[in-house]
């Protein structure tokens, strides 16, 4: 029974945190978000060099073939700095989809592992819930498939060398590989509330290749990859909450009002204590979900979706409480773009709505057997 | 007990509605709903209201006021919010206007009040400073008399919409040596075109520029710009606190947001049926509904109970719960939209706020509004300050 | 638009509060609860003399024929003192059922109005939800009806001269009048968590008379009377919350820890402010529901059930928060039988579960159109 | 990362389970579930545990201890609570026992430890006083030396189960003139049969008598009853604080209550189907479930991280959330029972608590337990104190 990262994983998280913390101010983040690519290319390369891009890819493609613990470490450290470099949506989630398919072109996996390119996953459609079958259609078969439809909230589509697009074809649900510069693609670029670059992408007769198999099996593989991403993003959330609450405690110690520091006001101090409890409890859930994922990888137990939903619902709620409290405890300054705390709050807010959002996750949970199943961390 | 307005009150409300819904352009009200109004919208709307005698109803009748009852004032605020009409600029109609009307010279009244009511002058508030937020009396800006002028030095911050300000009313120390920190403060009017004023816009996390910082470096203003007596500024500032009971609970706004939320839920398809069928969402809607009913009823009780217009500690209760509720409604809208709600387009609205990527969905600006609405429990006396006021003034703690 | 009691109603509430406050200590309440009848008979008579028992009964039966405002006033004042004299369950609710039936014996209403006797309503059955059809059966017709079955949580059944018993007969649901000493009645006496006397009552071939008509109409009349009681008990809840929070504020001002009064601790002071907000908002909802009831009595609008459920759900939640906070802010002393605050908390806890309880009320509300209907206090 | 116990740990757990489920009588465990255990139950259960070496595992091995790992201690506490086995009397096994073992004389150890472990002596705690609750160091009881005796005067309160106490360990001022209030306090053992002690039972709102007040009027105890050094009592008392990390979160208890709640929901018919189908109730169950999972995982993290047995501020976090969660589970059970849950019978249980009127329903004692469980966030260091500890010890505020 061990719910902690091992020494190597801790060291990996620290090396990422070190690389980020030296640069990441609110100003740096703002500039990176506003740059041509939407993140800091140098920093992305630095992190790729210490292995961040290779984690989830097998050794055949020069990856590190690491486990859920390493992904936790990376995303936790990224979260601690509210970093916007696109490892989860641009590398890890695409790599899981590609690997699961068994039919991914080698050069794609190798490029992702090397940090030379990113891919983008295009699944959300405007006004359509995550679990619905895609309205985007795949027509034709074999090497002659084309896609038509509109995807939204596609993270970093403007920089992606490849798009992994979900669509409904004759055989049902499928994930299709599309070149970023393929014909028939129209993009409207925008951003999320946390300043991550996203696009609406329209496909009209765009050539595509089916990854793996279509139909229910394809959907299950897609859902399992997304469940991994849901658990991974919770590590980022815990990193964000951890650092945001520490920054807030520091603020209470230094900021003066009425001639004394805010830490003199017991009402605020008690709220900081509640915040600490909130973060530590959320950390435990994220670690539990990560450990479950590692365990599932070793056994035949594939309850990843349920684990991801359970954990997501809990941590999204904690993320909201923490995001709101850290801003409130900062007062007006916590609302401004120039202080880190607002970026932490904004990113936490986006995470709550990621991969279909918390309300949809709650609906799935409440319809499942989860509410009537006793919780237990220990599996044996 | 009676749950109905009198026939006169109903007539009064209908007249207001005619102006709010038929005279104020629908496009402006639509932009209020989306949280994307511009300076021009605010000016246009206030001028239309003023044209119909509805911009400064609580001012003295001589300057356009109406002598309304507390209930009428309450109807006015609620209906205005519900109709999504931009609230007349608070700095003009609720702050500097009443102060000048009460304490200003005849010359000041004639010079400023008509232009203030019609928003020909856009006023900014110069109260908060970097080291004087919740602790306003800790302000450090000085206005030292030099002949017929005051020489102002210092820094003001959190100046909402200060980028549009023609004039600023500010608090500054005319007697920096005063014994208590509340003493020696004066209330001074400053033409923002005066040399020596520098503005630094403060971008908020949602991308908007709503607040600003102002630096005053030897800014010289005529002594005739002093309102009331020198060193009495703190008294005038306190006159404002608690003066804004009507509308502070934002009942009308929350009612409008609640209705939008129900409409959106009915139109949002989920896995089975629409969001309006989702038991969890229904439960959260009902909680919000009853909180809103409790808030409205409390506001009606308070409005009825103290018609003398004096500051009432109940306004702290209304602000506390009113802001919490409106914030939780924006959170509900965020959750309703799911992934759609965090999307923001790249085209910018007139005030710099980006427009939603998928503007056909109510969700499109949900995350921005959610983040922006965090200000409600901070600005204008934080919820922590309101709890302190309740504890002291109501509970004697 | 007026959501306040009028002067007469205020004066009525004050006169009851005066009569109670002079006597009601925790010790007095404890003794009254442990006495033979389960309340203080002298105090009951005093209150009856100033009109408390006659409120809901028409003038023909020497009642005052008063409205919902007067009931609010009486129950608010009873709540302020955590009084256990049984006006609501022993007089008002029975009188509403009797009056609605149109077939109540005159002597019953007259005795209730005069405060000479009380009646008990027997509807709950063990392990059966409030809205279910009674398992208790009514057999026979006309003057030969007998009842068989078991009722539970029958308030003050041991002292009731009459029982109003719900049962299922050939024509469906009915309310039956039964003499307290009729044959075939077996009682097991107990109490509620707030020390109110209640009994389990078993009927075996007990002679009874149908009140009004049986069937759906009878059930609707029963539900409407219970809805009035639900709204009335909320006035009691607000009275309890009001006084309990005031007692707590006084405690914070006087109790010393660490050499200073508790009011020195800002964390506690801020919670007292939140408590104040909670009570005032709940008061508004109770007044709104009362005003709705008064209005409905004058119009054809009979939305009493929905109003009662909406208000009950809101105030039960507030009651829980307030009951828990006043005990917590008192510390250990708040748990003891010898201090008033624990009695306030216990009574609030019972009220949350009265008339079927808050969970059932929530279920009704969520299945109704209420969540999607805009709230509005003003009706016009 | 690993979610499984080692084979040794699993074997260890299975051995414990055998004792807890097969040796401790089911009737006793059933009474724990209903919140109605008696003195006899506690004694019987502890003796059975002691017989199997499971009453005082964390004591020195010489006196019956086991040298378990942190994980084993954690398994022990969780399994004990889950099985609804009465926890060995904390005053004996977690408080006075470890103190005597660490600071007592050899004579004291031999006289008291075996009897304490076997519950032949029932100990009471004499720490709190009417004016010294959260502020324990403010205690006023004195023990003034007179020859070979201490003469004790004063008052102790909140003495849990003091009605059964054979002996009391108490804190008293042996040097009332000490400079700081934490100084001059000694840790003294008192035979409750000594003349001059008067008990006043304190009835709680649920009707139970769990706590008591004790008055000491010239109570003379031999100097040999002093534990450790005179005037060092505060050090020994602090030794106890935070010592009780295992079990403080009551994870096992909450797991048991959660399972009971699910079973009850499945058996409770509502308007349509059972309570287990009610979306609102499912939602509340799921919230509780995930909080419980978060708590258990946190406890496991903490247990693993600091195996040295030293006081850990994390115990404040575990107590804070552990009590809040268990309290909210009792509230859920209350709501599940509806009107049934407030019923209490007139026959009294062995310890004075009335038995449920409808004991076939889990609901029958729900309201009593709900009210009784309010103590969790008050006694043993209130949640306000725990927040203070976290702020100071963890956050440095």
Automatic annotation (TrEMBL), chains A, C:
**Family classification:** Belongs to the acyl-CoA dehydrogenase family.
Keywords, A to Z? FAD, Flavoprotein, Oxidoreductase
Oxidoreductase recorded as keyword: yes
Answer yes or no on keyword Transmembrane: no
Task: Please give the cofactor(s) recorded in the UniProt entry for this protein.
Answer: FAD
Record's PANTHER family?
ACYL-COA DEHYDROGENASE, ACYL-COA DEHYDROGENASE FADE28
| SUPFAM superfamilies per UniProt | Acyl-CoA dehydrogenase C-terminal domain-like, Acyl-CoA dehydrogenase NM domain-like
All residue ranges annotated as the Acyl-CoA dehydrogenase/oxidase C-terminal domain in the record: 217-358
Record-given protein name: Acyl-CoA dehydrogenase/oxidase C-terminal domain-containing protein
MF GO annotations: acyl-CoA dehydrogenase activity; flavin adenine dinucleotide binding
**What organism is the protein native to?**
Allobranchiibius huperziae
* Entry-linked InterPro entries: Acyl-CoA_Oxase/DH_mid-dom_sf, AcylCo_DH-like_C, AcylCo_DH/oxidase_C, AcylCoA_DH/ox_N_sf, AcylCoA_DH/oxidase_NM_dom_sf
TrEMBL record, chains B, D:
Q: Which cofactor does it need?
A: FAD
- What are the Acyl-CoA dehydrogenase/oxidase C-terminal domain coordinates in residue numbering? 231-395
Q: Origin, by domain of life?
A: Bacteria
The organism named in the record is: Allobranchiibius huperziae
What family is this protein classified in?
Belongs to the acyl-CoA dehydrogenase family.
Q: Which Pfam families match?
A: Acyl-CoA_dh_1 (PF00441), Acyl-CoA_dh_M (PF02770), Acyl-CoA_dh_N (PF02771)
Keywords associated with the record: FAD, Flavoprotein, Oxidoreductase
Protein's UniProt name: Alkylation response protein AidB-like acyl-CoA dehydrogenase
GO molecular function terms noted in the UniProt entry: flavin adenine dinucleotide binding; oxidoreductase activity, acting on the CH-CH group of donors
Report domain Acyl-CoA oxidase/dehydrogenase middle positions. 126-219
InterPro entries, A to Z: Acyl-CoA_Oxase/DH_mid-dom, Acyl-CoA_Oxase/DH_mid-dom_sf, AcylCo_DH-like_C, AcylCo_DH/oxidase_C, AcylCoA_DH/ox_N, AcylCoA_DH/ox_N_sf, AcylCoA_DH/oxidase_NM_dom_sf, Mycobact_Acyl-CoA_DH
Taking every annotated instance into account, which residue ranges of this chain make up the domain Acyl-CoA dehydrogenase/oxidase N-terminal? 6-118
